[in-house]
Amino acid sequence: MSIVLSDVTFHYPKQTSAVLNICAWSLAKAEQAFIYGPSGCGKSTLLGVLSGILPVSSGQLTMLDQRIDGMNSRQRNRFRANNIGYVFQQFNLIPYLSAIENIRLASYFANKLSNHQLTNDINTLLTTLNMPSQDWGVPVRQLSLGQQQRVAIARALINKPSVLIADEPTSSLDHANRDAFMALLMSIVAENNLSLLFVSHDMSLSQYFNRVEALSDINQG
Ligand SMILES: Nc1ncnc2c1ncn2[C@@H]1O[C@H](COP(=O)(O)OP(=O)(O)OP(=O)(O)O)[C@@H](O)[C@H]1O
């Protein structure tokens, strides 16, 4: 299994009631799930817990056969850098750095590759993602939104994660770019046997997934 939640609760500090209360939920290796729900239902909180940014308040969270709930924040950060790719709603790229520099930074935190291998891997990824090479060195704020989102995928993949988490990654894209992005993402996920957890309020994106669930069916919080 890639992810197993068992009696997991999460509440923000000073909150009386839990935002998340999930008895049992799991994602198999190389499985792709789409989770939807309206604004405020806890989607970002769930992804925060799964990526180890937020610690569970109680219960067991196991990812790639390792218990996350017992780890401190430094251990969770290292686990995330090595095993989880995260594509954010607003991309979260550093605007004045180039595509190459943004991707290098993500690799720095995992510290897995030699400089030479990293350069090769970045070149391969950006080529696979159809980024014209003249755009690789310019500050990403000068790229189109569609190109920035492709840089964000490359950054999420540079450490060869087994699990990819995507939080409304198409919300800034227009229709044509959105479809192109989804097709590209799903082909990369299939080629690399990645587990994918994709959350959105946009049900039209569910067509790309076999497994589609409402967060309200999983979460009693
Ligand atoms: N830092 C925080 N401190 C306290 N409460 C929070 C915090 N962040 C979120 N919440 C609350 O937790 C609940 C779930 O929020 P969350 O951001 O996870 O929802 P969401 O489904 O991702 O919403 P959206 O689709 O608008 O991003 C909301 O009631 C929100 O007010």
TrEMBL record:
UniProt KW Secreted keyword: no
UniProtKB keywords: ATP-binding, Nucleotide-binding, Transport
Residue ranges of every copy of the ABC transporter domain listed in the record: 3-221
Transmembrane segments: none
Database matches in Pfam families: ABC_tran
SUPFAM superfamilies: P-loop containing nucleoside triphosphate hydrolases (SSF52540)
UniProt keyword Nucleotide-binding present: yes
Designated name of the protein: ABC transporter ATP-binding protein
Organism in which the protein naturally occurs: Shewanella litoralis
